[in-house]
């Protein structure tokens, strides 16, 4: 169920100077997270105070038990194996998602998706965040595109390195990232924080720790809550 209203947590609501902070709990393997990203961006383009908005992506894993090496298993085969549905049922489900994405200007190729554990993609996102929110947002876009459009394995460290280099991250810091456990703690913290807040599904948008909206809502809903959060 989509949520739209006052955000309750164990933390006090806050603002950063006069900025409006938007935290987005998301997973690279979530098609509705990519669609919601587009809808949010459409709303942000219409928001008169968009220069005051600071966007921070938060880690969430829909299925943290996906093995490190899935041997290139397709999403359809994964649904058949894990959910007990037929290949025809899975294809029908994916067709609906593809059509929804198309209406948002996205080109999904669900038949090309390679099932992958997203932990390393999230670690890369956290590294990107150290360079600024825009760099993190650029990384998130490229990770979504790699997974849903290009059929790339987003747990492949060579692919993740290419994505990192394309947004200006250094080769040495990328090598260090993937030869260490750096940012594992950041990913874990985001997921634990989601649990504290009662977040069980994504996408989940939190604005100034006061308002929240979840799901691939239309851009009008995102614009509405941006205005509410900014004016209250």
TrEMBL record:
Gene Ontology molecular function: isomerase activity; oxidoreductase activity
Every DSBA-like thioredoxin domain range: 22-226
Keywords: Isomerase
Pfam families with a match to the protein in the record: DSBA
SUPFAM superfamilies: Thioredoxin-like
The UniProt record lists the keyword Cytoplasm: no
InterPro entries assigned: DSBA-like_thioredoxin_dom, Thioredoxin-like_sf
Taxonomic superkingdom: Bacteria
Protein name (database record): Protein disulfide-isomerase
């Amino acid at each position: 169920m989509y949520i739209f209203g006052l955000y309750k947590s164990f933390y006090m609501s806050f603002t950063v100077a006069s900025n409006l902070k938007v935290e987005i709990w998301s997973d690279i393997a979530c098609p509705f997270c990519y669609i919601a990203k587009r809808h949010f961006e459409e709303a942000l383009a219409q928001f008169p105070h968009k220069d005051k908005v600071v966007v921070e992506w938060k880690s969430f894993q829909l299925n943290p038990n996906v093995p490190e090496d899935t041997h290139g298993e397709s999403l359809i085969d994964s649904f058949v194996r894990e959910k007990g549905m037929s290949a025809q049922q899975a294809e029908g489900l994916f067709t609906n998602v593809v059509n929804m994405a198309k209406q948002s200007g996205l080109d999904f190729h669900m038949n090309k998706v390679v099932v992958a554990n997203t932990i390393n993609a999230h670690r890369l996102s956290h590294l990107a965040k150290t360079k600024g929110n825009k760099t993190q947002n650029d990384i998130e876009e490229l990770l979504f595109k790699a997974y849903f459009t290009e059929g790339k394995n987003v747990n492949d460290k060579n692919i993740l390195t290419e994505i990192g280099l394309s947004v200006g991250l250094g080769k040495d810091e990328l090598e260090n990232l993937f030869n260490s456990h750096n940012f594992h703690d950041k990913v874990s913290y985001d997921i634990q924080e989601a649990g504290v807040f009662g977040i069980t599904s994504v996408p989940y948008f939190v604005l100034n720790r006061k308002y929240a909206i979840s799901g691939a809502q239309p851009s009008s809903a995102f614009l509405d809550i941006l205005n509410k959060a900014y004016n209250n």
